[in-house]
Amino acid sequence: MMIFLLALSVSQEVVGRPRFDHTNDIAIAARFLADVRQGNASRTTVTFENREDPKAPTFEAFSRYANECSIKQIYAIPGATQRLPISVEWDCGRFVVKDGRPTWEERFASFRVDNGRVVEATFGKLPVVKIR
User: Bridge-partner residues for 86, per DSSP?
Assistant: First the structure.
């Protein structure tokens, strides 16, 4: 009986629920980043959140953060059944010293897309929580 219930739940996951197609949202986020690079992005319709410096959640801080490095990838979680934030990762191509150790510099951001436009941009790396 238990195996039957497990198989039933897996089969519903595989074929029962439609997956959300994030292709358009990824294109909207990419277009927004191109507009930021060119200085044409809307500053008033997007809410910015700076994870590394909450006192500087501004378009200017995001513009510096996004334009200093090249984009490595833009992606969404595949197989999601609902709209999720679009993630962007930048590869800065250099080592920086953090906590006394050289670390490869990467940057991260996520974007919420609604009604065909980016409405929220969260950028910066979250602090790592270590549980021992």
Answer: 111
For the chain, residues with pLDDT lower than 50 are 1-2, 4-12
What residues form DSSP beta bridges with 106? Answer: 91
Spatial CA neighbour of 118 closest among 52, 54, 59: 59
CB 129 within 8 A of CB 71: no
Domain boundaries, the chain: 19-123
Q: Please tell me what DSSP assigns to residue 17.
A: S
| Euclidean distance between CA atoms 39 and 81, whole angstroms | 34
Tokens 């510096």 -> residue: 64
Only one residue has tokens 């006192």, namely 55
Buried b (16+ CB within 10 A) or exposed e, 115-131: eeebeebbbbeeeeeee
pTM metric for this prediction? 0.76
CATH number of 19-123: 3.10.450.50
Whether the CB-CB separation of 107 and 89 falls below 8 Å is answered with yes
